[in-house]
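Lab notebook, bench 4. Still working through the backlog of constructs that have no structural model yet. Next entry is a single chain of 440 residues. Request: give me the structure tokens for it.
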Amino acid sequence: MIDIIIETSKYLMILLIGCYTYFNFRFFSLPDLKRKRTLCSRQIQAMFMIHLLAYLIIYLKTGDEKVLAFYGVQVLFFLLYIYLSRLFYRNVSRLLVNNACMLLCVGLIMLTRISFDKAVRQFAVIVASAVITWIVPCIIDHVWQLSRGAWFYGMAGLILLFVVCIVGNTTFGAQLSLKIHGLSFQPSEFVKLTFVFFTAAMFYRSTSFRSVAVTTLVAAAHVIILVVSRDLGGALLFFITYLFMLFIATSNWLYLGGGLLSGCSAAFLAYSLFPHVQTRVAAWADPWSDIDNKGYQIAQSLFAIGTGGWFGMGLYRGMPYMIPVVEKDFIFAAISEELGGCFALCVLLICVGCFLQFMMIAGKMQAVFFKLIAFGLGVVYIVQVILTVGGVIKFIPSTGVTLPFVSYGGSSLLSTFILFQVIQGLYILKQNEEEEYEEG
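Model written out:
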């Protein structure tokens, strides 16, 4: 009987997330506010149905009553987060709130299936992050001096990265984290936000050659420290973000071409200098030649995706634990194996939908500073998604970057909450301005 429920539910979940994803893109074509809100309500219904079906299966397979209590607490949190967002921030983007909750929901489902203890810790960080970042939209809407702190953002970021480079803990060959009173966190997850604010503030002041040169030197310092720390995934993320922000601010194709050329040269140099980069590239190029060692992780990821096919094995029918660090870098492979390629593709499209709204908000902002922030954060988000999924499917070498809101990790969660709340603040600011204009 349980097998029948699992088999039936996996198709229902694919259908529901397919509907959710359709509503996500249909939202952009609707001019009427009332119809948009109806669509968002349907998204919430689809999300809660997926959530219910998944945790029903988890309970039937484990028989653990703690799963039911955990499910109930999650439902309460999502309801409070969705409706309190609307209550406190009248002009909040309901689509972004829904998408954040949907991605969190998928992450919690897979983490509960892989490790209940890790899922509980992840949920505790989610609640704490939601509370901590609650005030961010209000700050964006009311504090007008944010553009004046360019050097504060830049120096704070450099100092944090430098400290990690000197005394940071090493994980998989890279110095990534700091441990304070038993708590470990990854500063680069937060520095990517200050980096965007620094770049936006500098280009808001001036896009003269001198200003571009100074900003580029500071940006290069960020990247170089990350390279020395062997956090090459982070270095690539910072480099791409800066390059596109520079191009948007200046519209200079020479800067873009020169940046791409220097980036390719730096990548070749990094490959030549760092053995662990050579290992990852070798595993990416031919994982089958050393499947028991260097190529094991990517080979198991490809096996999982291939085994799952389009419709998945069903929860608890796959072997996601065979993939090393599956709950972090390779969560997308676990989703593909048990929930199916169709489900995983919808998760990816939801991420793309978030990025599209980021870009639409950037396009609507009048102030150059806010426009660059929205664009920069959008690039940070989508590049992180591309690096994660690309590494999982062997499109590019694995970079060790997590999938925002889905992968396990406290620093990644908190920084993504901040990112989304900054975008929400910009959206609310623009909506408030439009209302004041119409009333005037």
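Notes after review: The two ends are 64 Å apart (CA to CA). DSSP finds 17 helices and three strands in the chain. Flag for follow-up if needed.
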